[in-house]
Amino acid sequence: MKLQKGQKLLFIGDSITDCDRARPAGEGLFGALGKGYVSLVDAFLQAVYPELGIRVVNKGLGGNTVVDLENRWQEDVLDQNPDWLSIMIGTNDVWRQYDTPFIPEGHVYPDRYESTLRALVVRTKPHVGQLVLMTPFYLESNKQDAMRATMDQYGAIVKRVAEESGALFVDTQAAFDAVLKELYSATLAWDRVHPTQAGHAVLARAFLKAVDFDWNKK
Amino acid sequence: MKLQKGQKLLFIGDSITDCDRARPAGEGLFGALGKGYVSLVDAFLQAVYPELGIRVVNKGLGGNTVVDLENRWQEDVLDQNPDWLSIMIGTNDVWRQYDTPFIPEGHVYPDRYESTLRALVVRTKPHVGQLVLMTPFYLESNKQDAMRATMDQYGAIVKRVAEESGALFVDTQAAFDAVLKELYSATLAWDRVHPTQAGHAVLARAFLKAVDFDWNKK
Amino acid sequence: MKLQKGQKLLFIGDSITDCDRARPAGEGLFGALGKGYVSLVDAFLQAVYPELGIRVVNKGLGGNTVVDLENRWQEDVLDQNPDWLSIMIGTNDVWRQYDTPFIPEGHVYPDRYESTLRALVVRTKPHVGQLVLMTPFYLESNKQDAMRATMDQYGAIVKRVAEESGALFVDTQAAFDAVLKELYSATLAWDRVHPTQAGHAVLARAFLKAVDFDWNKK
Amino acid sequence: MKLQKGQKLLFIGDSITDCDRARPAGEGLFGALGKGYVSLVDAFLQAVYPELGIRVVNKGLGGNTVVDLENRWQEDVLDQNPDWLSIMIGTNDVWRQYDTPFIPEGHVYPDRYESTLRALVVRTKPHVGQLVLMTPFYLESNKQDAMRATMDQYGAIVKRVAEESGALFVDTQAAFDAVLKELYSATLAWDRVHPTQAGHAVLARAFLKAVDFDWNKK
Amino acid sequence: MKLQKGQKLLFIGDSITDCDRARPAGEGLFGALGKGYVSLVDAFLQAVYPELGIRVVNKGLGGNTVVDLENRWQEDVLDQNPDWLSIMIGTNDVWRQYDTPFIPEGHVYPDRYESTLRALVVRTKPHVGQLVLMTPFYLESNKQDAMRATMDQYGAIVKRVAEESGALFVDTQAAFDAVLKELYSATLAWDRVHPTQAGHAVLARAFLKAVDFDWNKK
Amino acid sequence: MKLQKGQKLLFIGDSITDCDRARPAGEGLFGALGKGYVSLVDAFLQAVYPELGIRVVNKGLGGNTVVDLENRWQEDVLDQNPDWLSIMIGTNDVWRQYDTPFIPEGHVYPDRYESTLRALVVRTKPHVGQLVLMTPFYLESNKQDAMRATMDQYGAIVKRVAEESGALFVDTQAAFDAVLKELYSATLAWDRVHPTQAGHAVLARAFLKAVDFDWNKK
Amino acid sequence: MKLQKGQKLLFIGDSITDCDRARPAGEGLFGALGKGYVSLVDAFLQAVYPELGIRVVNKGLGGNTVVDLENRWQEDVLDQNPDWLSIMIGTNDVWRQYDTPFIPEGHVYPDRYESTLRALVVRTKPHVGQLVLMTPFYLESNKQDAMRATMDQYGAIVKRVAEESGALFVDTQAAFDAVLKELYSATLAWDRVHPTQAGHAVLARAFLKAVDFDWNKK
Amino acid sequence: MKLQKGQKLLFIGDSITDCDRARPAGEGLFGALGKGYVSLVDAFLQAVYPELGIRVVNKGLGGNTVVDLENRWQEDVLDQNPDWLSIMIGTNDVWRQYDTPFIPEGHVYPDRYESTLRALVVRTKPHVGQLVLMTPFYLESNKQDAMRATMDQYGAIVKRVAEESGALFVDTQAAFDAVLKELYSATLAWDRVHPTQAGHAVLARAFLKAVDFDWNKK
C-alpha cells in the first residue's frame, strides 16, 4: 500500500469527481465527499486500512475544464497542502467541442490542454509527495466515434505528462473499455459521460489498484 | 466466484438495506438500489464481472423487524423468484427495546426472532438456489454495553439458523469489530446503527468475500 | 395540404411525443401539448392554416413501449375518434435491451414489436381516415453501433407495416441522419434519445412535409 | 439564405423575446434560449442548415421598454459582437399607458420611443453586419381599439427607423393580422400580448422569411 | 335593506365567484370566502349590518359553465338551504368558444345555456326566499367585438330568465361599461375576464345596490 | 369628494396597512396594494371615480412603530411627493409593552410617540396638500382592559395632533366600537389586532367617509 | 407520586393537547408527543422518575369539541387501554360561538357539552384506573368578558362532572389566573387560546401537582 | 430564588443550547428561545415567577466550540449586558476528535479548552452579576468509553474554572448519570449528544435547582 499513515489525499476534477460533494469543504461526515469514485475510494480506505487514518478531500467542481482548475489551483490545491494529489480533467474540454460546437469560448483544444496541465503538474510537484494522473474517458466503445477519438487524444496527453513527471498514471478509459466489451455504454451512463455507481466502481478500483490497495488484507 | 451467469440476487432487510432505494422496484438505473451496501455489491459485480450479468434487487424497508419481513415475504421474496437471497434483519427488533422501552408492541424478543427467522428460512430454502444470512450489528465496541450484548445474542441466532440450513453466513459484527479497534464508533455512525459510506463498504466487502468475489480478476 | 378543415389529429407515442403534455387531456391552451414536436406541428398548423381549425391531441406517455400502447389503445385512441392518427413508438422497446440488459421483462423484441404494431394498425385502420407511421430513431451516426443497428431493424418493421397498410411513412432516422452528417449527436441530445428543440424541429418538419404542409402559403 | 456560416445572431427585446431564457447567458443547451420565437428560429436554423453553424443568443428581458434596452445596450449588445442583431421592443412602452395609466413613470411615449430607438440603431449599425427590426404587436383585431391604435403608431415608428437605416423590417402585426382574420385573439393569447406557441410560430416564420430561410432545402 | 336577520346568502358561479375560496366549505374565517366580490359583499354586510348576522357562503368553482352548475346543484345549492341565492354564470360557456374553438365539447351555446339556467331557476325558486341573477360580463368596451357580442347575448338571456322568475337582476356588464368609459380594459383585467380588486368592487357594489344596502347607515 | 383628479394618495403605517403589499413599490396591478383597507380604498375609488385617476401607494411595513416611520420618512414619504398622506401608526408601540413586557427596547411610550408623531406631521405638512390621521385601535370592547386603555390614550394623542395640524381625523376605534357592540372581538380578529376582511371594510369605510366618498354616485 | 410503574397515561383533547403531535400514534421519539403540555409532562416524568417507565400517549386533535371526542372515543381511548386518562376539552365548543357566531352547526352549547362529557366519563370509568379532568381555559383576566364568562361556565361543568365521578380535577383557569395577575394575556397567547411554552408550563405544572409529582426527588 | 426582579439571563453554548432559536435575537415570542432547555427554563420562570419579569436570551450556536465562543464573545455576550450568564460548551471540542479524527483543525484539546474558557470567564466576571458554568456531557453510561472519558476530563475543567471564579456550577453529566442508571442512552438521544425533550428537562431542572427555583411556590 503506497499511502502512509496520516496522509492527506486530495482529488481535483470536474463533475465526475464532484458528484454532489459538500461545499466549500468536500470532506468529513454526511456525504461530504459526494456520491462518486472519491467517496468509494475513501470508504474502502477507511474500511480496510482504518489504522492509516487517510484524510480524503474532494475538490471536484462540475463543468470544470483544465483552465478552470488553473484559476482555482492556488486556493483549492496548493493551500490545502495535500500529501497526495489526484487529477482527472478533460471531459468538458472535449465535450463542449461536440455539444455546443458554435460556442468556441467553451472549448479547450489539445495544445492549451496539454500546456496548462503540464504547467500545473510542474508547479505542484515540489509540494506534494505523490501525484496521480487519471485520464478523462468517454463511455463509447467505437474508437472511430469522433468524440471518443478526441478523448483518446487527451488521454494520450495525460499519459505523456504522467511519464514526464513521474506521476502514477491511471488509464480510466482502458478500465472502462474492459467493461464495454460486455455491456453497452447505456448501462453505464445515459450520456456516455456521467457514470452510474458501477462506473464509479470501475474508477475507484482503477485508482485503488494504482496505489496497491489490498482487498484481501486482514 | 459463486454467483453464476444470469442469476438474480435479492437482498431483504431493514433501513440499512433499504438506504433510499426506489419503490416499488429497487432495481435498475438512477440509484434504484439505494445508497448502501446493496448498491456497492451491485456496482462491483457489474464493474468486475460484467460478463455474468447478475441482476440485483433491493427489497429492504426502513424500520422493519423480522415480523415485518414475514408479513411481506410472499410478495417481496417468493414471488420474485430469486436465485440468491440475502437476509440481514434484527436491528429494529433489538433497538426498540432500548430506545422506546415503554412501548412493548415494538419489541421482538429473541424467541420470536429465532422462530420467525427459522420459519422463513425453512419455507424459502426449497425455492432459492443459495441463501446468505448476514447478522445484524451494533457499532459499539464495548461488548458489555447492554444493547451490544443483546445484538450479539441475535447475531448468534443468525449463526445458528445459518448452520442448520446450510446458508452462507456473514458475520457483519466481526467485520465491524476489526474496524472499531482502530476507529471510534462515531466515525462510522452517529447513532451506532446507520453506517457512513465507509461502514457500507465494510458490509459490501464482507458479503463479496463470502461469495468469493475476486478483486484482482482481469 | 392533406389535412382538411375541422379534422382531429391524434399523436401517440412515448416520452418523445409526451414531452410534458397536460394530463389527462393533452390538448388546449397553456402548453397542454407539451414541449416537443407535437406542439411544433400544432403551432405551425395554427399559424399557417388557421382557417382549417385542425384539432391536435397529444397522447404520448413517457416510458411506453408498443405493449403499453396496446394496453391503453381503446381509451386513448379508439375512444378519441381521431380523423388522423400518428404513431411513433419503439425507443423504449429497444433501449431497455441496452440500458438494463439484466431485466428482460422490460424488453420488447422484434417479433413482438412487429406483431403488436401490426395488430394495432389493422384494428384501427377502419376507424381513422389516415394513419401516419413514424419510425423510432437513435441519434447515433455510426450504423454499426449495436443499439443503432437494432433501432434500424425496428425502423424497417415500421416501414413494412406502413407499406402493408397504406399509411403515410415518416423516416425520422433518415431526417436525423442528414443533420448528423454535420453535427455530432451530443448537440441534438445528451442521451442520444431525447432531442433538443432543434431535434424536435427535425421531427416536426418531417411530419409536416409528409402531409404537404406549405411553408410559403399566404 | 442571408445568414452565413459561423455567424452570431443576437435577439434583444422584452418578455416575448425572453420567454424564460437562461441567465446570464441565453445560449447553449437545456432550453437556454427560452420557449419562444428565438428558440424556434434557432431550432429550425439548426435543423435545416446544420452546416452553417449559426450561433443564436437571446438577450430578451421581461418588462423592458426601449429605455431599459438603452441602459444595458453596451453590455448586452455591443460587447457581444453579434454579426446579426434583431430588435423587437415597444410592448411595455405602450402597455403601461393602458394598464397602469396613473403611474406615468412607466410610460414611454412615442417621441421618446422613436428617438431612443433611432439612437440605438445609429450607434450600433457600424458594428453589426445586419440589423433586423421587428415591430411590436397587439393581438387585437379591432384597429379602432385604443391600445391597438397606439401600438400601430409604434409599429410605424419601427418601420420608419428601419427604412432610414436599411435594416431588414419584419411587420409582426401584419403577420398576426392574417391569423386574426380566422381566429379570435383569445386563441393566441389570453392577455393579447404573450402569445401561445402558435403565436411564437407566427413570429419565427415572419423572421425566417425575412432572412430567406428555405423550408424545402434538402 | 332587503336581507333580514339571520339569513343565509349563498353565491354560486365560476372562477370569478370562487376566487380562491376555501374547500369544501367557502365560509368562516381566514379568507374562506376567497378574494373576490363575495368576500367584499360579506365584509361590508358585517361591517355595516353586524346586528343582522348574515351568513354568507361561497360555492363558486373555477372553470364552471352552467352545465357544471347543474351537475352539482343538489349538493352545493339545494342541500345548503340558503335563504338567498345569487347566480353568476356564463363566462366559460362563452370563452371556450373563443379561446379553444376547435374543442367543441367545452362550448355551451345559447340554447343550452338558456334552457339549463331556466331549469335551475324553476327548480330552485320554491326553496329559496329570494333569487339574484347576475349577468356574466366581458371587460371589452367595443360592443362589436365578437366575444363581447356573444357575452351580451348571454346577458340578455339572464335578464329574460330573471324577469320570468321575478328574481333580482344585476347587470354587471352595465356596471363595468360605466367604468370602461374612463379606463382601458387592461386596467381592470389583463385577460378581460378576471377582474382586479377594483373590478370586484364594481361587482360587489352592483350586488349591494340591488339589495338596498345603505352605505351611510349609522 | 375631497380627492381631485390625478392626485397621489399615500398610506403609511404598520402591518395593518402593509397587509402583504408588493415591495419595494406598493402600487400597480397584481395585488401590489396588499389585502387590507388600502386595497379596498383604492378599489372603490377606481370603481366609483374612475374619471379621477387617483394613484394610491401603500408604504405600510409590518412591525413598525412611529420610530420606524421616522427612520424611513424621507425615502418613503417625502421623496414620494404625495398629494395626500394618510398615517395610521401606534399598534406596535403599544402592543410590545404587553406581549413582550421584559424587552423594553421595543416599547414606545406615550411621550416619545406623541413627540415623534407631531414632528413628522409638522415636517410634512408644507409638502402635502392634505393629511389624514387615523388612530390605532384595539379590538377589545372592554375599555378597562389594560391594553385597550393604553391604546385609547394613543388614539387621544392622534386626535390632539390632528386638531393642532388641521389634518382630517379618522377615529378607527370608534368605528370598530360600533361593530363590537354587536359582535364579539374574535369575529373580527383572533389576536384583536389584525382584522379580517370585515374589519378592513370598517377601516376603508371610515376613511372613505372622511373624504366624502359618495357610494351612490352615478 | 400517584402514577405507578409501567402505567400508560393517555391525554385527549383539542389543539392545545395536540400541539403538532405525530400521527396516527402520538408517542415515542422525535417529538411524537407534540410541543405542548403533554410533552412537558412526559419529559419531566422521564427525567425525574425514569425508574417508573410511564408510557405517555397523546391523542389530542386540533379543532375538536366534546362531540368530536365522542365520535372517536372507542378507537382513540377505549381501544388504547390506558391506566390513566386525562381529558381537557371545551375550548372550541365555546370559541365557535364567538368567532363564527353565524355558523351554529359549529357551536356546542352547555347542555350538550355537559351531557356528552358526563356520558364519556361514565362509559370510561370502569375501564381506566384513574381519570383526570382538566378545565378548558381562556387567557382573559376580565371575568365579565363574554367569552371568559362562558368558558368559566364550562369549567364549572367540568368540576361538577369530576366531583360526581371521583376524577382528579385540574383547574387550569385558576392556574392561569395566578399568572394573569402579573402578566397581560398577550404575553401568554396572542389569541388568548393557544399558549406559549410558558403557558404550557403552567398546564404541565398544574397536572403534575395533581398527581403528586415531586420536583425535589433525588 | 437567586434571580431577581427585572434581571437579564443570557445562555451561550452550542447546538444543545441553540436548539432552533430565532436569529439574530434568541428572545421574545413565537419559539424564539428554541426547543431546548433554555426555553424550558424561561417557561418555568415565567410560569412560576411571573412577577420577577426575568428576560431570557439564547445565544447558543450549533457546532460551536469554546474557540468559536471566543470569536463572538464581545458581540454576543459583553455587548448584551446580561445580569446572569450561563455557559455550556465543550461537546464539539471533544466530539470532533472522535467522529472526524483525521481532520485535526476541528479538534480543541484540553489545554486550549481550559485556557480559552478561563480567559473568557476572567474577562467577563467583572461585567455580569452572576456566572453559571454547566459541564458538557455525553449520554453514555460506560465511563471507560473513550469519548465519555474525554468528556469527563472536560467536565472536570469546567468544575475547576467554576471553583476558581466562584461561578455557580451545574454538573449536567451527574444529572444525566442518574437517569442513565434506569434508561439506556438511546432513549435520551440517538447520537448520545442531542437530547430528547426528556433530556432537556434534565438540563433545565439541573439549572433551576442551582438557582433555587421553588417548584411549589404559590
CATH architecture of chain A: 3-Layer(aba) Sandwich
Number of strands of chain A: 5
Number of helices of chain A: 10
**What's the SSE pattern of chain A?**
EHHEHHEHHEHEHHH
Low-confidence stretches of chain A: none
- Estimate the helix proportion of chain A, in percent: 40-55%
Quaternary state reads homooctamer
Q: Please write the CATH class name of chain A.
A: Alpha Beta
What is the CATH topology of chain A? Answer: Rossmann fold
Count the domains of chain A. Answer: 1
Protein structure class of chain A:
alpha/beta
Q: Largest sheet of chain A, order of strands side by side?
A: 2-1-3-4-5
Mean pLDDT of chain A: 97
- Measured by DSSP, the beta-strand proportion of chain A falls in 5-15%
CATH superfamily of chain A: SGNH hydrolase
**How is the biggest beta sheet of chain A arranged?**
5 strands, parallel
Biggest interface, chains and residue tallies: A-B, 32 and 32 residues
GO molecular function (chains A, B, C, D, E, F, G, H): hydrolase activity
Protein name (chains A, B, C, D, E, F, G, H): SGNH/GDSL hydrolase family protein
EC number (chains A, B, C, D, E, F, G, H): 3.1.-.-
InterPro entries (chains A, B, C, D, E, F, G, H): Ester_Hydrolysis_Enzymes, SGNH_hydro, SGNH_hydro_sf
Structure description:
8 copies of one chain form a homooctamer. Chain A has 218 residues and is of the alpha/beta class. Chain A has a single domain (8-210), classed as Rossmann fold (3-Layer(aba) Sandwich), CATH 3.40.50. Helix content of chain A is 44%, strand content 11%. The first copy, chain A, contains 10 helices and 5 strands, in the order E-H-H-E-H-H-E-H-H-E-H-E-H-H-H. Chain A has a 5-stranded parallel β-sheet with strand order 2-1-3-4-5, sandwiched between helices. In chain A, helix 7 (146-165) links the parallel strand 4 and strand 5. In chain A, helix 5 runs antiparallel to helix 7. Chain A is globular, with a radius of gyration of 16 Å. Chains in contact: A-B, A-C, A-D, A-H, B-C, B-G, B-H, C-D, C-E, D-E, D-F, E-F, E-G, F-G, F-H, G-H.
